Amino acid sequence: MIGSAVLSAPLIAPMLVAPFGIDAMLPGWLQLVLASIVQFGFGARFYRAAWHALKARTGNMDLLVALGTSAAFGLSLWMLVRDPVDPGHLYFEASAVIVTLVRFGKWLEARAKRQTTEAIRALNALRPDRARVVEHGVERDVPLAQVRVGTTVSIRPGERVPVDGRIVSGRSHVDESLITGESLPVPKDDGDPVTAGSINGEGALVVETTAIGAETTLARIIRLVESAQAEKAPIQRLVDRVSEVFVPAILGIAGLTLIGWLIAGAGTETAILNAVAVLVIACPCALGLATPAAIMAGTGVAARHGVLIKDAQALELAQRTTVIAFDKTGTLTEGKPSVTAFDAVGIPREQALALAAAVQRQSDHPLARAVVAAHEADVVARGGGAGSADIVAADARAVAGRGVQAHVDGQLLALGSTRWRDELGIVVPPELDARAAELERAGNTISWLMRAEAPRALLALIAFGDTVKPGARDAVAALSARGVASVLVTGDNRGSAAAVAAALGISEVHAQVLPDDKARVVAELKRTHGGIVAMVGDGINDAPALAAADVGIAMATGTDVAMHTAGITLMRGDPALVADAIDISKRTYRKIQQNLFWAFVYNLIGVPLAALGWLNPVIAGAAMAFSSVSVVTNALLLRRWKGRAR
Q: Per the database record, which ranges form the P-type ATPase A domain (predicted)?
């Protein structure tokens, strides 16, 4: 495509500067050389496709391109051979530019197809190549292909889980966010399942393999992405549909023009010139520009506002969207835990928060970072008082499956789960126990700050949750105003999903949905709601649904897999960009329709005039150029579009 554009530029440049009185026309022989390379080198594929269309007795865009460019090239060659010194106006630039523009459109389609391969490659990268097998108490590192169902595998802290399995010994927290979308690490104990591709936390685990290779959850996700993307057929271009009628009609009119002028007694040269004028004026320069010019302008302005539209299919379908299925974690919420409630018991709140931060400061656990962040925010809110840096924690260590403990100010403090609280025999006031239950029902994770040695006592209740993104509610409202319904589809628990949906004004909620089930939910939405269904997500667990939806929209703040699978990528994690994506898609598609309309009107008027001999090839070429400029100018009006998201 680049080579074709480089060779076409010297041919089209003189036409662009001619209105300013500048004569930069190249010698005829040089035009012939440049145009021949483009026409028969870069344009060879159009001749092959045209031949297949003729054998199938049908018309399409490729046949129209081959006929129009050949007519312009042939007429120019004939004029050059007839008078090499002063051939008059040649039309080599028309044939070269059309070939280049249509090849650009084909390049866009090819780039979209490559996304499939990239998505699958990114998913496969999550699968470890090796596993640590335990046999007779001895660990042995082996290729993953040698692991069988029933094999015992050892997984150290921080490692990616290589197989689907069930824990036979050990406790830990496992980050399953890439698989399930759950933002908080999930506590795991004996008998709990683990999924290949997830990341082990602070504790060592011994796992009995229950599924390997193609039977793992991750492998099923990969197959779902492959099958869903394979079902997406290329868009049936409006130009191709019209070409099935337009191409035979133009050929018929050109033939009748030739015969008519011969019967009328005009010379052979006049008859041929008028017939060629019909083919030249019907040469699909405006048609070739109609779609790519609007797409270039629309996708360009969208990109400047943070919306990347990857292919024409996403563009066409996005503007017809009637239902949008939102993932929760990382899409409508921040995707990381924060302290949503902190109730101190028996000591001032700021003191309890400082103690909790001191215990957690040396940990990289997401909940630990949330506690430290909450304390720092509290310090700032109180005008920069004493921080946890004044309180030194010693001997801090993680207790697998329970939490963290450390010595602070000479006392042993523990911060961890309800199970650990009960094991320590900590007494909880009934009203605080009821509040903890209420917070859990709303989808929060509960931890307790305790004095773990005599006299044991409860110091604070801490609730962790995922906060809604600023502007998410306005984004849902903006979509509703456009007639687009919003649905929440998440792998998180029902309490968390219901709380987020209520905060955003979303009435339809699908919670605790596994990755392979998300694609089925999307299919069900298509059936129950009708129309076009879009899916907005950011995680690997969203990839099957993104591929299965009519339009996949991914947050660039999420995983590469989601972005490769989706047809539209939002460069900021702002849900308001979803409405912007739909809006610019509608405006761009409207420009495409307008351009095609004017291109066909131009042909409807110009072809009869050429057939009647009122337009010679030179005037026909000028009219063709004018129609092309009109189409491009109309497309460039899209650059004035302004998105609502900031």
A: 126-226
User: Which is catalytic among the residues 164, 311, 327, 538?
Assistant: 327
53 touches 62 (CB < 8 A): yes
Q: CB of 152 within 8 A of CB of 513?
A: no
Place 386 in a pLDDT band, splitting at 50, 70 and 90: very low
- pTM of the model as a whole: 0.62
Assigned token pair, 582: 């739909």
- Cβ atoms of 420 and 456 within 8 Å: the answer is no
Q: For 113-177, list the strands marked E by DSSP.
A: 130-135, 138-143, 152-155, 164-169, 172-175
Mean pLDDT of 289-317: 78
Q: How far apart are CA 371 and CA 283, in angstroms?
A: 68
Q: To the nearest 10°, the Cα dihedral for 99, 101, 102, 103? A: 80
Nearest Cα neighbor of 71 from 221, 370, 280, 337 is 280
**CATH class of the 336-465 domain in this structure:** alpha beta
Quick check: 549 and 536 in contact, CB under 8 A?
no
Q: What angle do CA 130, 160, 565 make, to 5 degrees?
A: 100
Residue 237 in 3-state DSSP?
Answer: coil
Encode pLDDT of 47-98 as tens digits. 888 888 788 777 666 776 787 778 778 878 888 888 887 777 777 777 787 7
Q: How many residues does the chain have?
A: 646
- Assigned CATH topology for domain 300-333+468-584: Rossmann fold (3.40.50)
Beta-sheet pairing, 568-570 with 551-555 = parallel
What is the per-residue pLDDT across 442-483, written as a single tens digit (0 to 9) for each? 878 889 999 998 889 999 999 998 888 888 999 999 999 989
Q: Is 49 helix (H, G, I), strand (E, B) or coil?
A: helix
* Ordered DSSP codes for 549-609: SSEEEEETTS-HHHHHH-SEEESSS-THHHHHHHHHHHHHHHHHHHHHHHHHHHHHHHHHH
DSSP state of 152: E
486, pLDDT greater than 70 = yes
Structure token pair of residue 578? 């979803």
Is domain 130-161+164-211 given the CATH code 2.70.150.10 in the classification? yes
pLDDT tens per residue across span 391-421: 778 888 888 778 889 998 888 999 988 889 9
**115, 507, 556 from 584: Cα distances, Å:** 22, 27, 18
Number of H helices, E strands in the chain: 22, 22
Decide if pLDDT at 259 tops 70: yes
User: Which of 157-166, 529-538, 569-578 shows the lowest per-residue confidence on average (mean pLDDT)?
Assistant: 569-578
Residue 69's φ and ψ, nearest 5 degrees, are: -70, -35
- State yes or no: is 583 an active-site residue: no
Q: Where are the domains of the chain?
A: 130-161+164-211, 300-333+468-584, 336-465
